[in-house]
Every structure is written in C-alpha cells, then in structure tokens.
C-alpha cells in the first residue's frame, strides 16, 4: 500500500475528527462531513443515506445533490444502486452507473448523469446503518486504495451514528438507540414487567476512533494482543482435560496468533484509525460474514473470533464486564444467553429477562420459572438494540418486548400491569380459602418447586404443599456434583420451610435437555427418547442411592414422599422401589432415624404406563401425570420445538379421553392421582382436568390464584356435560365449547339484578 494513500486517508480522518469534535448540531456535522469527503476524493458528489426505519433509506446529507432533497429522498431496501448496496451489504464500484444493474435515475435530487458510482455500506458489527456514496462525472473506477480509505471512513461514520453524533433538531436523524423498538420473541415464563435494561455483558463503547500517531497505536495494539495471548493460554491451562473446551480454546489461540488478523488491523491503524477502531472493523467484517456463512462450523469459528475481538476491545479500553454502571433498581436483564448459575446469582432482584438465544426448556428458563420472573427467549437483535438504562417493557403474555416505548404504548402496557395487579389482589383475598367448586368438589392445589428460593411462595400462594420438587435443579445450577451431606442439608431446609406441608421430592430427572455441566453428555440421536431420568438412575444406581440416602436423612423422623420420574413400565417402578427399601434398611443399620411415614410414587409421563397391569396401579402408592412429557409422547410432538409444540391442544378430545382412562384405572384401584405438568396451571385446562376427575393439581405458585378463582365459580357437572357433548359432536378440541359455556355464564351473572 502506498504511503501517500495512507497519509491521505489519515488526513481525511483527522479532518473528520475535527468535524466530530465540533459543537455543531447533528445536521451541520453531517453536511461538513460530506463536503470534506467530496473534496478529499476529488468527486462532485458525496451523500450519506441512513436508515429511517428497517427498510427505508433516507438521504441525510449531501454535497453536490440538491439541498432540498435532503430528508425528502427515500428509497426502499434493494431499490436503485444505493438500495442494492444496503440489501447486499456489499460495495458497488462502477465507472458506468447508468449501465449497472438496478440503476435508477433520481431527477428529484437534481442528479445529473454521473458516470462513476462508489457505494459503501455503513455498518457496525454486521448491522446495516446506511450507505455512503461518492459520484463523479468522469468515468473512472475507484482504486482499491480509495475504496479502502472510504471503507474506513464509513466505519467511523457508523460509530458516530451509533454514538448519536447526528442527532439534532428537526431534520437530523435520530440515533438508532433513541428510537422505540418492538421485538417479538417466544414466551418462556409468563408475566409482565416494566423496568430498565441491565446488560449481562455490556457492549464495549469505543469513543476514540481516530488517532494521529500510528506508531503508538500499533504499539498499544501489539501489547493488547500479547495480553490476549497470555489470557488464552491461562484459560487453556484452566480447562484441564475437557476436550470440548480445549477445542474451542485451540481455535481462540489460532486466531490470537493469526498474522493476517494482526496485519489487517495494523494497516487500518496506518490509515488513521485508533487501535480499538481497527479491532472493531475486523469484528464487523467477521459479523457480516457470520450472517452469510451457511456452514455451521464456519459460523462457530466466526463467533469465536467475535468473542476474541470483544476480549481484545476490553483490554484496549480497560472496560471489563463491569463498566462501573450502576444496576437500576428495576433491572430487566438483557443477554445473548445466560447459564442457570449466573441467573441464580441475580436472583429475585430481576424484574424480567430477555434473551436473544435460549429456549423454552433451557436451564435458564427453568430457573426463571422457579423465580417466577417473566422471560422472553429468541428476542432477535435485542443485545444490539438495547443500551444499559434504556426503558424496557416485557410482555410475557404476547411474547413482545418494547424497548424505549412511545408514551402511548407505555401507558397501554401499564394498564395491563395494573389489571394484573388488581387480579393478584383479588387472588390474595382467596388465598387461605380452599378450592371448592360451586358443586362442592374440593380440588387440591399444590405448587411446583425446585430451588430453596421457591419455598417462600408456599405461604404466599396458598398452596397446600409442594406437589413436585424437581431435584435436578440443584444439580444443574452447580459446577460440581453436590455432596450427599450438602443435599441432605438442603432437603432438610426444604422440609423445615414447608413446616409440615407435604413435599413430593422427585428423584433426579437428568438426560434429554437437562444435561449436567459436569457430566459428559451422551451423543444421543434423540435425547428426549433416550437415556434419561429413571433409566439413568437404574443403570447407575450409585447416584440414585446417594440421593435416596440424602432424602431419608433430611426427613430425620418426619414423613417423606418420593416419586420416580419417567417410569415407562411396571418393572422400572419395582426396581426403583426395591432400591428405596434396600436404602431404608441400610440407613437403619447405620443407625439413622427413618422417616415416620414413607410414600413412594411414580410419574406417568409415557403412554405405556397408562396401560400397565392393574397390579402396578395397586402397588404404586400414588401417581402424578407429567403432562409436559406425556403430551409430547402422546402426539409425537417435541415440547421444545417451536414448529410443533403448540400444534396440538391439551384439550384435544383424544388426549382428554386418554386422561379419563387413567382416572378410571386409578379409581378402580384407589390410587391417588395428580397432574403436575404446566397445563395444570392454566385455568381452563385445570377446570377440565377437575371435571374429568383429576382433583389434585400441582402448578407454578403464580397460577394458584387464577385456577382457584376459576374453580370457585364453576360447576364441574356442567363442564362435564359440555365436554361430553363436544365429544359426541366430534369436535377436535373441547376448548371452544368450554369457552363458549364460560362466556354464557359470565353474561348470565351480569344479567342478574
Ligand atoms: C412433566 O413432564 O410434565 C413434568 C412435570 O416434568 P418435567 O417438566 O420436569 O419434565
Ligand atoms: Mg417430565
């Protein structure tokens, strides 16, 4: 690269920096910049187009086109050469623009026929913000060096746009980060919340973009890269023998030592960028490629490079994850993804959580559910759009996030929160009343739990006990296998907190989506149908025995209820029960106090168990329907797969009939039956379950009020008739008929004097 060009681009950047530092209003800055670029490049025209909304570009400043056209001329993504640059995120460099595919003549701009056109995407970290264009009458193709210099300028422009340098009165563009944004995601935990953004990993803010002294910037960069290499080596040493982690770190090491990477950044510094701006330029390129790479392996490596660039930026700017910002009093956590342990550390201080990735069944979702914090997953681009401290509203009913909402949206949302609060108050007033229906049936309402943090809800919600304590959560949120003594102490505290109310401990349900961080995952072709839950417990009885011992010791003379998950056939229950009896005998021999009473049940989560021999129903001491799993196997529809998980209604006639058969079998043998899947917490579903005879339900604590209120108002005999009539008519689901019935009831109540 010629030194002359380097000096030219450095000069241009130096002048740009002066324009940036000036006190001018946003528009004046933009005007000055277009003037500077046109004169430095020897072109008649330089224009800056920025996005007005997601797919509209607006001419925001120009040197050479009609001043009247500024803020008037707009084009859609893909329209004309400018729109094409934006759509493809690629440079167009042509000496003969009118002949180029997609060319559109825009007389409204006073455009003469300019022959040459160079359009450069203005993007930051792979995100398109606008297009920078230079045009000249003379037919010439811009040289690689000129293109390169303008690319650097475009990057600086992108940074300035992000930093709000062009925000001003009236005509100027508003900064992206001050606009209202609506993001659609998927609900992983219901609830509504308002608060302020707290970024789990705050983005690095690069405010020094241009530098005069390339030698000292290069030295800073080299020093930072050396530090980075040392830190990668340290991470490798810490990773020990973990092969997967070693592999990722190998890739990190390769990038950190890549000569090409360093050389490109040094060249950018030579052109006038600061060390951090040079790193960010490479990062932007990697992000843009990441968006286009079809190959999963390549995408992963580019994402490694992205992470490495972030680390390098933190070293250069001195900004750690801790930026010194203060956590707002009403934080809504925004992150790409988060692990369960990290989420637990935040605990109940969070009002809501919004994740770019994640999944409905992820560990983070399990923890959010336990803490009853509204959670939206798959909220695309949220970490790009949100800044620390932004106002944010989470609608965990519609699966929508409002970032920096307009006042009208905010007030409508607040009405919704107020309505919920009102309903909560109504529920609080019936908290200590039993759930007895209008026809006099008593329904037992219990809560699901899994963490110590859940237990305060036992009193707050009015639950009669814990119908499902998911013990795997304690294993999932740790980085090491918990010891027997730790588990026993924890279970004992759970029983203390329950103060005599029944707690049903479910033994470890790992496998499928619940992979322990310290256990090597099995590469199973279909984990939901694989080696999980009781199957693991029976094949590797050591862990099961240890857990049973911990439970017996925790009970220490108090009653104990244990249930085994995912029992698919009688023999599995028998084997697990035998394990329990052996453990009890051994504990007695060791001199431990045995539980005063012990009941051992099973979860009915596979259709096969519904058809087990009558002897099984006689032997098992209680059954709890795990509707989440049972439904996925009944309909062969993955509970984690967004494409199918809502496809079949729980109130589908086939499924209800199947549940009725289970009720009948339990009735014949006098086996206590409950339902503990998520559907138990949905009022209409709960009502139908009670109507068909499932009168013990276990649910999220927050659902107890709404379900109880629905039961208080209902006559199960009438609901049963509605269900039977729907089935006789051949309805696919009983939901429409039940809804219609409930609506008519409400109208009737309204008509009463
Ligand atoms: C179920 O499957 O319904 C259940 C309660 O268990 P989990 O959701 O933990 O699999
Ligand atoms: Mg289950």
UniProtKB/TrEMBL annotation:
What cofactor(s) does the depicted protein rely on? Mg(2+)
Report the locations given in the UniProt record.
Answer: Cytoplasm
Reactions mediated catalytically: L-histidyl-[protein] + phosphoenolpyruvate = N(pros)-phospho-L-histidyl-[protein] + pyruvate
GO cellular component terms, alphabetically, are: cytoplasm
Q: Which InterPro entries match?
A: GAF (IPR003018), GAF-like_dom_sf (IPR029016), PEP-util_enz_mobile_dom (IPR008279), PEP-utilizing_PTS_enzyme (IPR050499), PEP_util_C (IPR000121), Phosphohistidine_dom_sf (IPR036637), PTS_EI-like (IPR006318), PTS_EIN (IPR008731)
Q: Where is the GAF domain?
A: 25-171
Report whether Kinase shows up as a keyword of the record. Answer: yes
Q: Does the keyword Kinase apply?
A: yes
EC number of the protein: 2.7.3.9
Pfam families cross-referenced by the UniProt entry: GAF, PEP-utilisers_N, PEP-utilizers, PEP-utilizers_C
Keyword terms of this UniProt record: Cytoplasm, Kinase, Magnesium, Metal-binding, Phosphotransferase system, Sugar transport, Transferase, Transport
UniProt GO BP: phosphoenolpyruvate-dependent sugar phosphotransferase system
User: From the UniProt record, which GO molecular function terms apply?
Assistant: kinase activity; metal ion binding; phosphoenolpyruvate-protein phosphotransferase activity
Q: Which family does it belong to?
A: Belongs to the PEP-utilizing enzyme family.
Q: What is this protein called?
A: phosphoenolpyruvate--protein phosphotransferase
Q: Organism classification, top ranks? A: Bacteria, Pseudomonadati, Pseudomonadota, Alphaproteobacteria, Rhodobacterales
């Amino acid at each position: 690269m010629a030194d002359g060009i380097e000096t030219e681009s450095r000069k241009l950047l130096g002048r740009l920096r002066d324009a940036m530092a000036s006190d001018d209003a946003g528009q004046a800055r933009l005007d000055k910049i277009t003037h500077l670029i046109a004169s430095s490049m020897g072109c008649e025209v330089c224009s800056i187009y920025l996005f007005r909304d997601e797919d509209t570009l607006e001419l925001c400043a120009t040197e050479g086109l009609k001043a009247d056209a500024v803020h008037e001329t707009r084009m859609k993504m893909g329209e004309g050469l400018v729109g094409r640059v934006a759509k493809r995120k690629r440079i167009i460099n042509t000496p003969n623009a009118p002949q180029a595919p997609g060319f559109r003549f825009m007389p409204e701009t006073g455009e003469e026929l300019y022959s040459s056109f160079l359009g450069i995407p203005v993007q930051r970290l792979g995100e398109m913000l606008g297009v920078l264009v230079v045009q000249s009458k003379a037919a010439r193709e811009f040289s690689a060096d000129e293109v390169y210099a303008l690319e650097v300028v475009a990057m600086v422009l992108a940074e300035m746009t992000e930093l709000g340098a062009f925000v001003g009165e009236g005509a100027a563009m508003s900064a992206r980060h001050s606009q209202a944004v609506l993001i659609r995601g998927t609900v992983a935990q219901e609830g509504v919340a308002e608060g302020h953004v707290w970024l789990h990993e705050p983005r690095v803010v690069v405010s020094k973009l241009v530098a005069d002294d390339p030698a000292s910037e290069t030295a800073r960069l080299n020093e930072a890269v050396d530090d980075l290499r040392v830190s990668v080596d340290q991470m490798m040493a810490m990773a020990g023998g973990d092969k997967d982690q070693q592999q990722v770190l190998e890739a990190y090491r390769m990038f950190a030592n890549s000569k090409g990477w360093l050389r490109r950044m040094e060249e950018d510094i030579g052109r006038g960028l600061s060390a951090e701006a040079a790193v960010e330029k490479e990062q932007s390129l990697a992000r843009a490629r990441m968006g286009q790479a079809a190959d999963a392996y390549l995408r992963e490596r580019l994402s490694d490079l992205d992470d490495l660039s972030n680390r390098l930026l933190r070293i250069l700017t001195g900004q750690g994850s801790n930026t010194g910002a203060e956590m707002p009093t009403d934080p809504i956590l925004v992150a790409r993804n988060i692990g369960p342990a990290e989420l637990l550390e935040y605990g109940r201080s969070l009002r809501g959580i919004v994740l770019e990735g994640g999944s409905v069944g992820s560990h983070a979702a399990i923890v959010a559910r336990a803490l009853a914090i509204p959670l939206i997953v798959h909220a695309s681009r949220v970490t790009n759009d949100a800044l620390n401290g932004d106002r944010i509203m989470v609608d965990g009913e519609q699966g929508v996030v409002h970032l920096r909402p307009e006042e009208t949206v905010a007030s409508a949302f607040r009405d919704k929160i107020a309505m919920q609060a009102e309903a909560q108050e109504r529920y609080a007033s019936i908290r200590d009343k039993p759930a007895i229906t209008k026809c006099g049936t008593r329904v037992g309402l219990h809560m699901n739990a899994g963490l110590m943090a859940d237990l305060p809800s036992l009193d707050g919600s009015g639950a009669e006990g814990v119908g499902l304590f998911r013990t795997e959560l304690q294993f999932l949120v740790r980085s090491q296998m918990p010891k027997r003594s730790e588990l026993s102490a924890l279970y004992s505290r759970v029983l203390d907190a329950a103060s005599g109310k029944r707690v049903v401990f479910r033994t470890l349900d790992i496998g499928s989506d619940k992979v322990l961080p310290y256990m090597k995952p099995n590469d199973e072709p279909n984990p939901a149908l694989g080696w999980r839950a009781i199957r693991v417990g029976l094949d590797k009885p050591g862990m099961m025995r240890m857990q049973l011992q911990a439970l017996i010791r925790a009970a220490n003379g108090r009653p104990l209820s244990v249930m085994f998950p995912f029992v698919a056939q009688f023999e599995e229950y028998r084997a697990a029960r035998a394990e329990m009896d052996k453990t009890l005998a051994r504990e007695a021999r060791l001199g431990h106090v045995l539980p005063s009473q012990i009941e051992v049940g099973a979860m009915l989560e596979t259709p096969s168990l519904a058809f087990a021999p009558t002897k099984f129903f006689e032997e098992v001491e209680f059954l709890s329907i795990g509707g989440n799993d049972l439904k996925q196997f009944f309909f062969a529809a993955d509970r984690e797969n967004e494409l199918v998980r809502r496809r079949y209604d729980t109130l589908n006639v086939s499924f209800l009939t199947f549940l009725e058969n289970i009720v009948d079998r339990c009735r014949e043998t006098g086996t206590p039956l409950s339902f503990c899947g998520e559907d138990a917490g949905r009022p209409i579903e709960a009502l139908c379950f009670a109507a068909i005879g499932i009168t013990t339900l276990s649910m999220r604590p927050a659902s107890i009020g709404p379900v109880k209120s629905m039961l208080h108002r209902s006559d199960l005999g009438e609901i049963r008739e509605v269900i039977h009539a729907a089935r006789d008519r051949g309805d696919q689901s009983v939901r429409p008929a039940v809804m219609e019935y409930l609506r008519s009831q409400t109208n009737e109540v309204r008509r009463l004097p």
